[in-house]
Each structure stands twice: as structure tokens, then as C-alpha cells.
């Protein structure tokens, strides 16, 4: 996912890899599944994951930053860390996991032994600043824990996290004065003037507090913090490194050290001195999107005592509990990949609410949650596909909070619509579609309750009817988005039509026949993008003609498509695959075109100007989300054995237990959720349906422990490279002749068993009645 800003009005808001296999997770790993996670996976290449400490859906992501480059060079450092780097500039408390754009990197802390430097320095010039070299050999990277030796200082740094607290433990070398540097200037995706204003205070009890306001991806974002140390300071200096300060009537010279209790400005740095220490220094930091007072309250509530090892054990236990929802039997490497994928799928959305229930909404005002925990960090263009359906299946109580958070955000929206791409409560307008709609619809159809369904449906209809957003006005009038009025119009027409279908499913389940009929009709708008002459989805002009000239290989901004081309987007009709098969000329032609997609000879440099189109198999691009459902489409044309073969091809080439083991951005868990579902043997091609398309398992046995107390087990035998195809399937001991599974069959508990074989079974699942359902089949 790259940055595509889509405002609800016409003004758009601007805004060396480790290729060797990873060593086993280090000693002292947790006894449960947390010990089978390796957060290094995805930290190299284009995975954009971070290796640091966090807990499931936690507010804190405390992680090392190897670079925070300017916005022109920031893509590979979207999570602040690249495995190929050799120095660390500090440890900050907020990060996105796997995004294609970034921000955050708040409250950067660096332990220093010896002389204090106030600038990060040049990575190519050791000791030119406060950053330090490190070796991967010194790193310990586990779920909820990170440690590294900063070789230029001889400091052993350890990190762990609670839900709102980052915990640090620094062991300094004997005989050198110990310091902690706090830098409020750096930010991931940095550019001049990003920090609008900041404050820094040292209180009488030694607590350090502050806030900063940035004009980053979410303009005007404010984050506050509170920090305490386990040992008293011997001295301190607060600096304002800004050379020309003018803000709200205040003027000052800047660039002056102040040995006092407070500083305000745009370039604040604090240096805290502790003398020569005989024992490790512990630091705890709480954050708040609301206020310094709330940050202190979070610290008081969640950060009692000084016992780093106990907090580390609690973080591991939190991951053990979250990951225990699935037990798998698989070889060690496969287990590492599976549980790391499940771990990555449970990092977002993040808690964005203080202990007193306050959170910041998209109106920038402070609101209070009533009976739920407010979460934000919504990469909705990505996560509606598999990550949120996975949470609805595995953690329905969490899903309830997520839906309530979306509804609350809509109620605080100045435009009265659901989030598009939001974090810390604020909107970025990134990407396209109104994909909070299928997140809510899928949860409801899958049986998630505990939220006001009428409020949810009203929010969904409002989002699908807000004309200024992405030219929905013309879409509602013409049945498509015209390319002369709105960029990437073919993609928008197709994604709106699917979102409309998902809305209709929830309305239908609620007995709202009129709403269901309206949006079921709109779900057929995909046909306005279909060009039977070329055999591709295309964008039309306002007069109804297709835009010319047409190149099905053209991709990205300025084309008809969002982060894709005609080859990739022409399959995006998940709500009506049967209709798409008919439009393409029937099963045989549909399968042949799918084969052509996967078997095309494509030079990866073709997409050099579209960073997110990666993981190519022909035109298929597993590193970006529009392709994620495509391998399963063979099921819908009576050729499930080809789905099985393609899945093996994808699993073998796009995932690995290495730092560069993700073919593209993890996008807040979507790439990982695809892996989890596909390893289990089924996938939600059409969220808001109660069906999953069957593939083939990639683990010998998986027991899913459901929230209702039942267990659903998936097994496969013989499972090896010599037996890649499904010969037969049974559900609870009875033959299953169809290529889909229903939600109700999973939550009822039982066993799904795949008998694997060397050669494809071309008969199983080939009948029309055996295929997953699609809109045209039931009168949509």
C-alpha cells in the first residue's frame, strides 16, 4: 500500500538485506507459542515490519530506529528499522507494522555512555552523533521483548512493553557516566517543519513530561508522554535546537542549553545524567493522544513498580494467551512462519484510549468511550480482506470493540462517515473505497454482536452515500466513477460495488429489505467497468465511452487503477465471481485467462515506479492486496486443483523465515493473515459472506480454539511436497464434495480433513453446485 490521498472534497491533502535464514529464536523464549514467533521476519526488503516490543493490539510499539530519513527516501524505513542497517539512532515508542507509508516514531530515547552528542550523526561516519553501531549477533528478538548491545557505548539495551507503557532497561559499562537522551525532533517520514510545536517538562519528583504536535500524515496530530527513571538524575539539560523560533507570539533565539525545568519550541532535546551507575537503569514511558495529565495517569495506572523482568514475562504471557487460539502441528520452520504471521496479524488496530476512557477523534476533539476500548490504526484498504475476518473468527470480543471504534469515529467525523485510513483517531484519507463497511458487515454476518447494529448500518449507508468522497456523487448517478472527474476510476468503481454488496448483506441479515435492495443493485455496477472488446476492466468517461488509449499493462496513479493494472484489477468482483466468469465467456476461458495472468513473462522493472507492486508471479502481484483473492478464483470455475497448485507456488516463493521473508508490505497484518488462512486451508474471498473458499492446508494439523469453547480442527495427510493436491475432503467424517466451508460449520466445532495426493483430482469440486456461491447464483 502506497500513499494515495483521497479527500472527501475536491482538495487532496498532500502529504542490505539479511538473505540468510534466521537463527532459532534466542534462549529464554516463552514456553508457549510466543516462543515460536520471530519478529525479525519482514524487517528486511519491503516487509516494513518492526522488531521491537509490543503486546496484542497495544498502544506502545517500542522499537529500534535505524533511520528516520526525509520523506523522499523514507519508503524502506516505514517502520523505522531496516535489517540491512548497521547502526541504531534510538528507540521510539510508536510504529506502524508493514505500512507502505508512515509517520510516528514518537518519543525517541537513546542511552549514552560517556560524552553526549545532541545530533544523530551520519550512519556512514561512526561516532559523528549519538547513534551507535550494533551487530545482529547481539540482538534478541522475541514477542514482547527486544535487546541489543550498542557497541559504540557498550550499553546493553532491553525493551519490553505493556498496553500503554514502554519499559527500558539499560546496563551501562563500569567507569563511564550514564546518560539518557530524549529527542523530540525525529519522526518517521520526516521533512523540514514537521514538528509544529513541542513542550518538555521535568517535575519535582523527577517525572519528565511533554507533548509534540506534528503536521505529518495526519495533520495536527498531538502526542503526549510521561517518563520516569528508576534512579535519580544527577543533572539535566533541556535544549531547544531551533535557530529561529516564532510561534503563537513567542519569539526566541533557540539553540540554547537550559539547565532548568521546562522548554518549549520545535526542536527539543533533553539530556538526563545519572553519573556512574552500579546497577541497570530502568525507564518507563507512557503515551497519550490527549494530554500530559492523561499520560501521567496512564503511567500511574499501568506502570507501577520497577520490575523489568516481571513486565517482560507479562508481555510474553499476553502473547501466549493471544496465540493459543490456534495450535498447529508442523516442522519448526513452518511453525515459526505460522506463529509469526499470526503475531503480525494481531498488532493492529491499536489501542488508542487512555485509562480514563478518553481518546481523540477525527474532529481533533477529546471524546470518552462508554463500555468499550477505542482502537485506531486502520489500513482499511488492506485489512478488510483477511486480517479483520481472521479477528472476527478468532477474537470476536476484540472484533466488537473494533466495530464500536469505527462507529464512534464516524460519530466524531466532521463529514459523518466511517474511517478510511486512520491512526490515533485521526484521518489521513489514504487509499480508496469505504472499506470500513465490509469490516462491519463481515463481523455481523459472522455472528459478532455487542454493538448497535442500527447505528452501524446508518454509518455504513452514510459512508456509501457521501457524494464528495471519491466522486461518489457521479458513481451514484452514472453507476460508475468517470475518469475525467476522478483518478483511478476503474478501481474505485469496482471497490465501491463490492462495498455496496457487503452493505446489502448486513441489511439483509437485519431484515432491512429496502436498504438491501438498493445496495444489491449498486453491487452490479462492476459491469459498467467491464469492456467485452478488450476483456478487461476499464475506466469510462462521463459520456459513457471508455478512455482511450488503453494499455492493460499501465499501472498506478494516472492510469485507470490504484496500485495495479488491468491484468490485476479485472478479477476484482469478489461479490459476483459467477457473473465475471460469464462475462469472460465461461469456465474454460476464465481459467485460461487466470493461467495467462500467472504464466506471463513480466520484467519486475515494469513496476519500478509503483513501489508496492511486488511479489510477481506473471502479472499476479502477491506483494499487494488487489491480487490476494485471485488464486482462489479457480474454485469458482470448477478447477480447484489449480487453486491448490497456485497456492503452493505462492507459499513457496512469497514467504520465508528470513528478514526479507515477506514479498511486500505486511500492511498491518494483511499479508500475514493471508498466510494464516491459506495455511489452514480456507480463505475469505468475499468478506461479508458466510463462506470461505477451500484451498489446501500447509500445516499437518491445526486446532482452532473458538470463543464459544468449541474446537475446529483441520488436518491433512500425507502433507509433503510429493502430495500437493487434494484428493478428497471430509467434514466430521462425511465426504465434503464442495469447495467452500461455512462459518457456521467452523463455529460448531468438528474436523475438516484433507486427503492429499500426488496428482490433481480434476473431478472433486468441479460441479457447478460444488462451487462457492456468488451474487449471480442467488439473484443479486
TrEMBL record:
Pfam families listed in its UniProt record: Glyco_hydro_92, Glyco_hydro_92N
Record-linked SUPFAM superfamilies: Six-hairpin glycosidases
All residue ranges annotated as the Glycosyl hydrolase family domain in the record: 294-757
GO molecular-function terms, A-Z: carbohydrate binding; peptide-N4-(N-acetyl-beta-glucosaminyl)asparagine amidase activity
Domain Glycosyl hydrolase family 92 N-terminal span(s) in chain numbering: 37-288
Residues of the signal peptide: 1-29
Keywords (A to Z) from UniProt: Hydrolase, Signal
Any GO BP annotation: glycoprotein catabolic process
GO cellular component, one term: cytosol
PANTHER family: PEPTIDE N-GLYCANASE PNGASE -RELATED, SECRETED PROTEIN
Record-given protein name: Glycoside hydrolase family 92 protein
Organism: Rhodanobacter denitrificans
Phylogenetic placement of the source organism: Bacteria, Pseudomonadati, Pseudomonadota, Gammaproteobacteria, Lysobacterales
Amino acid at each position: 500500500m502506497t500513499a494515495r490521498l483521497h479527500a472527501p472534497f475536491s482538495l487532496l491533502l498532500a502529504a542490505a538485506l539479511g538473505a540468510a535464514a534466521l537463527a532459532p529464536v534466542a534462549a529464554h523464549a516463552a514456553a508457549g507459542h510466543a516462543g515460536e514467533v520471530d519478529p525479525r521476519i519482514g524487517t528486511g526488503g519491503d516487509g516494513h515490519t518492526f522488531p521491537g516490543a509490543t503486546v496484542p493490539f497495544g498502544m506502545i510499539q517500542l522499537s529500534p530506529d535505524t533511520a528516520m530519513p526525509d520523506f523522499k527516501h523514507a519508503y524502506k524505513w516505514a517502520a523505522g528499522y531496516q535489517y540491512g542497517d548497521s547502526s541504531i539512532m534510538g528507540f521510539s515508542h510508536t510504529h506502524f507494522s508493514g505500512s507502505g507509508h508512515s509517520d510516528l516514531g514518537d518519543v525517541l530515547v537513546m542511552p549514552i555512555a560517556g560524552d553526549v552528542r545532541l545530533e544523530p550523526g551520519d550512519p556512514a561516519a561512526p561516532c559523528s552523533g549519538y547513534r551507535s553501531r550494533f551487530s545482529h549477533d547481539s540482538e534478541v528478538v522475541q514477542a514482547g521483548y527486544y535487546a541489543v548491545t550498542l557497541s559504540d557505548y557498550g550499553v546493553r539495551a532491553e525493551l519490553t512493553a505493556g498496553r500503554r507503557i514502554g519499559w527500558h532497561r539499560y546496563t551501562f559499562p563500569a567507569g563511564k557516566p550514564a546518560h539518557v537522551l530524549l529527542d523530540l525532533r525525529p519522526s518517521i517520514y520526516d521533512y523540514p517543519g514537521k514538528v509544529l510545536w513541542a513542550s518538555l517538562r521535568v517535575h519535582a519528583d523527577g517525572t519528565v513530561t511533554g507533548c509534540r504536535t506534528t503536521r505529518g500524515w495526519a495533520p495536527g496530530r498531538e502526542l503526549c508522554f510521561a517518563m520516569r527513571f528508576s534512579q535519580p538524575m544527577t543533572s539535566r539539560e533541556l535544549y531547544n535546537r531551533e535557530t529561529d523560533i516564532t510561534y503563537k507570539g513567542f519569539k526566541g533565539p533557540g539553540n540554547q542549553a537550559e539547565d532548568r525545568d521546562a522548554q518549549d519550541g520545535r526542536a527539543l532535546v533533553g539530556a538526563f545524567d545519572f553519573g556512574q551507575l552500579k546497577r541497570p537503569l530502568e525507564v518507563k514511558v507512557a503515551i497519550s493522544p490527549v494530554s500530559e495529565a492523561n499520560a501521567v495517569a496512564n503511567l500511574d495506572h499501568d506502570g507501577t513498580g520497577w520490575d523489568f523482568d516481571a513486565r517482560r514475562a507479562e508481555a510474553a504471557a499476553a502473547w501466549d494467551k493471544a496465540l493459543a487460539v490456534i495450535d498447529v502441528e508442523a516442522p519448526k520452520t513452518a511453525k515459526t512462519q505460522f506463529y509469526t504471521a499470526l503475531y503480525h496479524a494481531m498488532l493492529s488496530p491499536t489501542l488508542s484510549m487512555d485509562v480514563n476512557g478518553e481518546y481523540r477523534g477525527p474532529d481533533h476533539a477529546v471524546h470518552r468511550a462508554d463500555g468499550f476500548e477505542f482502537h485506531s490504526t486502520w489500513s482499511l484498504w488492506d485489512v478488510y480482506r483477511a486480517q479483520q475476518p481472521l479477528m472476527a473468527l478468532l477474537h470476536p470480543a476484540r472484533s466488537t470493540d473494533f466495530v464500536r471504534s469505527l462507529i464512534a469515529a464516524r460519530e466524531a467525523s466532521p463529514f459523518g462517515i466511517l474511517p478510511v485510513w486512520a491512526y490515533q483517531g485521526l484521518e489521513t484519507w489514504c487509499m480508496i473505497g469505504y472499506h470500513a463497511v465490509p469490516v462491519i458487515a463481515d463481523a455481523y454476518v459472522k455472528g459478532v454482536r455487542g454493538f448497535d447494529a442500527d447505528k452501524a448500518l446508518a454509518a455504513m449507508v452514510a459512508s456509501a452515500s457521501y457524494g464528495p468522497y471519491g466522486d461518489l456523487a457521479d458513481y451514484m448517478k452514472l453507476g460508475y466513477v468517470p475518469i475525467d472527474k476522478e483518478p483511478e476510476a476503474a478501481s474505485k468503481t469496482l471497490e465501491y460495488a463490492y462495498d455496496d454488496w457487503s452493505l446489502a448483506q448486513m441489511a439483509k441479515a437485519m431484515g432491512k429489505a429496502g436498504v438491501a435492495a438498493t445496495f444489491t443493485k449498486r453491487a452490479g455496477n462492476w459491469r459498467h467497468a467491464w469492456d467485452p472488446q478488450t476483456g478487461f476492466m476499464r475506466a469510462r468517461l462521463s459520456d459513457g465511452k471508455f478512455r482511450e488509449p488503453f494499455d492493460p499493462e499501465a499501472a498506478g496513479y494516472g492510469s485507470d487503477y490504484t496500485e495495479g493494472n488491468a491484468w490485476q484489477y479485472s478479477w476484482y468482483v469478489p461479490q459476483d465471481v459467477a457473473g465475471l466468469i460469464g462475462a469472460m465467456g465461461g469456465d474454460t476461458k476464465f481459467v485460461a485467462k487466470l493461467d495467462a495472468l500467472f504464466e506471463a513473462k513480466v520484467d519486475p522493472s515494469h513496476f519500478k515506479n509503483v513501489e508496492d507492486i511486488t511479489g510477481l508471479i506473471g502479472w499476479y502481484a502477491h506483494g499487494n492486496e488487489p491480487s490476494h483473492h485471485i488464486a482462489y478464483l479457480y474454485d469458482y470455475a470448477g478447477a480447484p486443483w489449480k487453486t491448490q497448485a497456485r497456492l503452493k507456488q505462492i507459499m513457496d516463493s512469497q514467504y520465508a523465515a528470513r528478514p526479507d521473508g515477506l514479498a511486500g508490505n505486511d500492511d498491518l497484518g494483511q499479508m500475514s493473515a493471508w498466510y494464516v488462512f491459506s495455511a489452514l486451508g480456507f480463505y475469505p474471498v468475499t468478506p461479508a459472506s458466510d463462506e470461505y473458499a477451500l484451498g489446501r492446508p500447509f500445516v499437518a494439523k491445526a486446532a482452532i480454539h473458538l470463543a464459544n469453547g468449541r474446537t475446529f480442527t483441520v488436518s491433512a495427510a500425507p502433507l509433503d511436497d510429493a502430495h500437493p493436491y487434494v484428493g478428497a475432503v471430509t467434514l466430521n467424517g462425511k465426504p465434503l464434495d464442495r469447495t467452500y466451508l461455512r462459518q457456521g460449520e467452523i463455529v460448531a466445532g468438528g474436523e475438516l480433513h484433507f486427503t492429499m495426493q500426488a496428482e490433481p483430482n480434476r473431478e472433486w469440486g468441479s460441479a457447478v453446485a460444488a462451487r462457492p456461491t456468488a451474487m449471480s447464483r442467488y439473484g443479486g
